[in-house]
Amino acid sequence: PRVPQPAQGRCVMIPDWSDDQVERYLGDCREILPALEVTADCIVADPPYGETSLPWDKWPDGWLQTVAGVTRSLWCFGSLRMYLAHAAEFAGWKLSQDVIWEKQNGSGSDVDRFKRVHEQPTHWYSGDWRSVHHATPREAGQPRAATMYRSRAGGDHRGTIHASEVQQDSLRLARSVVRIRNLQGRAIHPTEKPTGILDPLITYACPPGGLVADPFAGSGSTLDAARCTGRRAIGIELHEPYAEAAARRLSQQPLMTAAP
Asked: Chain-wide mean pLDDT for the chain?
């Protein structure tokens, strides 16, 4: 809803659900995001891929242009088919990397191809790479030799490679293939993402205390994950039944990150 703000003679948006870290709005992200007049450290988006005949699976034209007005850093879930079909709409963004989310089981029913058990979140940015927040999570691993090659970013995300002496410990950069169980049989939304795959994406692209926005908030997974990692979050959801279910979820105590 919009309410007048007498001091400035204009309208502002009022969330339909909020706490001290999260705001959730009901409506179309293409209308609501510009009206909020915010700058997000990153967007985490799981748009309809437009690959099925299901009534809700319709690609929302123009959403990429909308989010470009509020952030310079975007994680987008998708499939290779989806990215190719909408390549022209991603033309204003630069691709920094892709991650493979490997599930324990797929949902497709095709029997004439490999069983699809993965999705492909990709990270996009605009402007100067050095001014876009990026902090790769680290995970347990074996210590390695003290000398290693690492990238020192120059004008873009690829940077210039230098040999450098570093102090090693038992941690390593998180790998680009992430194995997390999906929520088969337990999901609020048919395409709900577990917080275990959302946590590292948010940690990478948003600093602690920063702002994450989700234009397709669905079950509230991104909002929950952002809150659990100490970030603020704004979510927008078009479909009221899912918005109501997400509000019930967010009213509970924050959930712990899902285990691999």
From this structure: 86
